[in-house]
Design a protein that fits this description.
By secondary structure, the protein is mainly alpha-helical. The protein has helices at residues 9-22, 28-40, 45-52, 58-80.
Length: 87
């Protein structure tokens, strides 16, 4: 997967499928792109730290990815829909 520079649902969804098929180890480069994006938009630092930590259990990193993906999607959605900005 190419580097993720924004958070379109399709990119995050494709990465989720890759994680399911190949596990964390097979997606490390893409996960680091998500970490950089999450840092740039000030996503919860605890979640970012877990996702970025290669020594964290895979299940914890997968859960952190899921939460970060949801938060990124909400952020990108709130940019498009003014009604969601207050959410």
């Amino acid at each position: 997967m190419s580097a993720i520079t924004s958070a379109p649902r399709s990119d995050l969804g494709a990465l989720a499928h890759q994680l399911d098929e190949h596990g964390i180890a097979g997606c490390e480069q893409s996960l680091q792109a998500v970490v950089r994006l999450a840092c740039a938009v000030a996503i919860d630092a605890v979640l970012v730290d877990i996702l970025a930590d290669p020594t964290a259990p895979d299940v914890a990193r997968m859960r952190a990815f899921g939460r970060i993906a949801v938060l990124l999607e909400r952020r990108s959605g709130s940019d498009r829909d003014p009604a969601l900005r207050a959410a």
